[in-house]
UniProtKB/TrEMBL annotation:
Source species: Cannabis sativa (Hemp)
BP term (GO), one: lignin catabolic process
Family: Belongs to the multicopper oxidase family.
Transmembrane segments: none
Taxonomic lineage of the native organism: Eukaryota, Viridiplantae, Streptophyta, Embryophyta, Tracheophyta
The name this protein goes by in its record: laccase
Domain Plastocyanin-like, residue spans: 75-222, 328-463
Cofactor(s) this protein requires: Cu cation
InterPro entries: Cu-oxidase_2nd, Cu-oxidase_C, Cu-oxidase_fam, Cu_oxidase_CS, Cu_oxidase_Cu_BS, Cupredoxin, CuRO_2_LCC
Length: 481
């Protein structure tokens, strides 16, 4: 079976490259990159070598930047501008930043864009062979539908965890997620487009990049001069098909690296999240809603990263004071109709205080989180990413989570295992994981437009009982702030 990695942003990634990390180097301080969370950022002109183990995972993982919008430099989503300027301009006035100008497949936008007719990713295949595509969504701010004309795919892994084989003619994938699929070159000898465009959950009145990127699958030996066949992608707003895909995936129980669902829960959390408004500072000009600035929150706390040291270093040195506090709430301060559009009119709810709060966890404790979308300003499907852990997705649905009836829907036998969950628009998801990785780990929306304005929190996981389960000292070459 041939293997290809395809990064869309889709990073559909480059042919013959596996993104699974093969080399195992020394474990070092649990650093995984987020600036001011697990380390200070690497300064311009300097470098840093990460040393880490990959254990208990097989398939595709994606290593990417976590400083502002720098991960746009892997070319998943394209702006005809410097992306850092785009981000800073939006933040400076508190408005939504400019939308992108193109999506790409392996860094190439394809021939539906102006001036890019020769800038298209091409993949040659042999008739009758089966190929493994490692698909990564590297877009900053969009989930994406992806399809290959006249071909079906079989999903076999997501986020480096095996799934029960799932046959489909399309996939939907959120930023940061990975999806491994098999496709068989079983069609006639000619060329076929692979294509991707966004899955949108904000109202149609909110602008978005409504373009389509495409590449070509070319059969070896094809003699036809006819144009490649184009797939019919789901509509931009096709939530039913997106939800069908996301919920039909199940884990490969008892397969390689399978981890059963922990049944005893030690920590129960109910976490609301959504967009908010920050009041405009005195003598400033703000172009966000209600003459304020765009903000975001989890449990009514709008997260602010420290900037003088990293949270992980403060945790190691037991010097949290002035860096962060350990009083992130287990539930929002008020109960309300989380998905009602009327809450956008309630000023007591749409303003959230800025803070740097984390949730402290005992080592090896089992955490269950209800992730509840809210309708602050607008509803949206938010991909929530948990650093440092895989989690089981027990259930997901629309509306307000019902602690009695929705628990009956829990899959405790073969739920999908992920590190990023696209929480349904105007809905909820329940995840469960074991806190067996000491350190400080971010939890955040993987739409990068929402991360810098506060849609984040973090876990502080205590050390375990043995040296091998204890956070090691910082490496001598760890970047300094």
């Amino acid at each position: 079976m041939a293997r290809f990695a395809i990064w869309f942003a889709i990073l559909l990634v480059a042919a013959s490259i596996s993104l699974s990390f093969a080399a195992v180097v020394e474990h070092s301080f649990n650093v995984n990159g987020p600036a001011y969370a697990t380390q200070c950022p690497i300064k311009p002109g300097q470098s840093y070598t990460y040393r880490f183990n990959i254990t208990g995972q097989e398939g595709t993982l994606w290593w990417h930047a976590h400083v502002g919008w720098l991960r746009a430099t892997v070319y998943g989503e394209w702006w005809n501008a410097n992306v850092i300027d785009v981000e800073n301009e939006g933040l400076s006035v508190g408005a939504a930043p400019d939308i992108s100008d193109a999506y790409t497949i392996n860094g190439k936008p394809g021939n539906l864009y102006n001036c890019s007719s020769n800038d298209m990713y091409k993949l040659k295949v042999e008739q009758g062979r089966t190929y493994l595509l490692r698909i990564i969504n590297a877009a900053l701010n969009n989930q994406l539908f992806f399809k290959i004309a006249n071909h079906n795919m079989t999903v076999v892994a997501i986020d480096a965890a095996y799934t029960n084989p799932y046959d489909t003619d399309y996939i939907v994938i959120a930023p940061g997620q990975t999806t491994d699929v098999l496709f068989k070159a079983d069609q006639s000898l000619r060329s076929y487009y692979m294509a991707a465009h966004p899955y949108i959950t904000t109202p149609p009145t909110v602008g978005f990049d409504n373009t389509t990127t495409r590449g070509v699958i070319e059969y070896k030996g094809a003699t036809s001069d006819s144009a490649p066949v184009m797939p019919t992608l789901p509509d931009f707003f096709d939530t039913p098909r997106a939800h069908q895909f996301y919920t039909n995936l199940t884990g490969l129980a008892d397969g390689p690296q399978w981890v059963p669902v922990p049944l005893q829960v030690d920590e129960n959390m109910f976490v609301t999240f959504g967009l908010n408004i920050e009041r405009c500072p005195v003598n400033a000009t703000c172009q966000g809603p209600l003459q304020g600035r765009f903000s975001a929150s989890m449990n009514n706390e709008s997260f602010v990263l420290p900037n003088k040291t990293s949270m992980l270093e403060a945790f190691f040195g037991n010097q949290r004071e002035g860096v962060y506090t350990t009083n992130f709430p287990d539930a929002p301060p008020l109960e309300f109709n989380y998905t009602s559009p009327l809450i956008s009119l309630d000023e007591s709810l749409i303003y959230a205080p800025k803070s740097t709060k984390v949730k402290k966890l005992r080592f090896n404790s089992t955490v269950e989180m209800v992730l509840q979308n809210t309708a602050f300003l607008t509803v949206e499907n938010h991909p929530i990413h948990v650093h440092g852990f895989n989690f089981h997705v027990l259930a997901q649905g629309f509306g307000n989570y019902d602690a009695v009836n929705d628990r009956q829907k829990f899959n405790l036998v073969n739920p999908q295992i992920r590190n990023t969950i696209a929480v349904p628009v105007g809905g909820w998801a329940v995840i469960r994981f074991q806190a067996n990785n000491p350190g400080v780990w971010l939890v955040h929306c993987h739409l990068d437009v929402h991360l810098p304005v506060g849609m984040s929190m973090a876990f502080e996981v205590e050390n375990g009982p043995t040296p091998s389960l204890t956070l090691p000292p910082p490496p001598s070459d760890l970047p300094k702030c």
